[in-house]
């Protein structure tokens, strides 16, 4: 029996500076009908003891501390443990508007046929956090809705999924690195019932050591080839790859700087500590996202 409305699931490994900010915000915003589940990939930066204390203090509902095969494996654990009617992924380094997420949840309760709700998003880079970009998949959603294309892609940063829908969509494919990319193609190809919220559930922050920045163009090209065969996806490079390629380029630049400075770290944990004003940066970003969602009335499309 599902005992919560929303399960917030979070997978992390050696990202404690970001994790503390994100979990503190989530804990402060949490409602009685919501739960927090954290999957810790056997971190060695103090994350394990931090989560243990949060659990003892009853600030989080469940946590696991064990190695993962990959990020899909970690996120799948979280989804299987979820006791909520709806599942919301929380990335340890991104910004979320919980009021917007709950607005989507309420809309999905009113529309029980909807499996997934996605939204627009904002984007930035930690190093240049004053530069905020807007991103939308609405035009591709509308093309898909009109059967002009068999599938389309969207990020899971802003996705809210009904847990019961997992029996139809399946979990994340553990052979993929860009797991949300494949998941979105699969869900849309299967004609899952998807709704679109024109507001902003999230603000994506590119940071040292995240999955996309550590990916390579070769990996993305290989995964794109698989998707083309499985789902007949032609690609829409202008809208998708420009942000991924930017993050890859910045990630490669960071690796070059670290290498030439004889700088080594574990999962970029040392790089994270270089941002002494991290909390201040994130507070500003939370305010930006909140302000953006107050500008106008947004709509749901299905």
From TrEMBL:
GO terms for MF: hexosyltransferase activity
Keywords: Transferase
InterPro entries attached to this UniProt entry: Glyco_trans_2-like, Nucleotide-diphossugar_trans
One Pfam family from the record: Glycos_transf_2
Residue span, Glycosyltransferase 2-like domain: 8-166
Record has Transferase as a keyword: yes
Protein name: Glycosyltransferase
Naturally occurring in which organism (per UniProt): Mucilaginibacter arboris
Taxonomic lineage of the native organism: Bacteria, Pseudomonadati, Bacteroidota, Sphingobacteriia, Sphingobacteriales
